[in-house]
Amino acid sequence: MSAIIRKIVTVVEETQREMGRQVSPPTRRAAAIAVIENPFAGKYIEDLSPLIAIGEELGELLSKRAVAALGIDGAKAHSYGKAAAVGENGELEHAAAILHPKMGAPVRKVLGKGAALIPSSKKRSGPGTTLDIPLGHKDAAFVRSHFDGMEVQINDAPRANEIMVAVAVTDSGRPLPRVGGLTVAEIKGEDGLR
């Protein structure tokens, strides 16, 4: 089963100034969001493997779009994250099926690596809901400068029988980071932590 996509929205956010200071180079984040039909809306289905396959499909599609929106090679990406909102006739497990078992592998392939867990969030909501996509460094979870999030919204999604699915990618950490911890230069990228 392939995703039946109603729309795809891509958002790029670039921060050039923060607290009156120039951010150089600017920090950039991109999110690609797909609004898809929920094939299991309104009914309990034991086998969610079709949604798992859709998650794999969307992992590749959305990560490619987010990287392209930043105009960088996937290997140059710093952070990633994913999120989903299920319309009122769905259940949270539908979002979990899309986000977890198989979405990560194609995202990591597009980015050339990704030793760290991909941060995620899910919720049930209606049209115009805000998705908060958590972000973390793709190769080392302990890089505090990359603990972040990106907020996205589509005014007419998700409808009752839809799921809104997003992948976010960055080319840097937060603007003006200064809370210490492991730096990007210190990353080993072996265990996903450091």
UniProtKB/TrEMBL annotation:
Pfam families: AA_synth. Gene3D superfamilies: BB2672. InterPro entries: AA_synth_put, BB2672. SUPFAM superfamilies: BB2672-like. This is Amino acid synthesis family protein. It comes from Bradyrhizobium agreste.
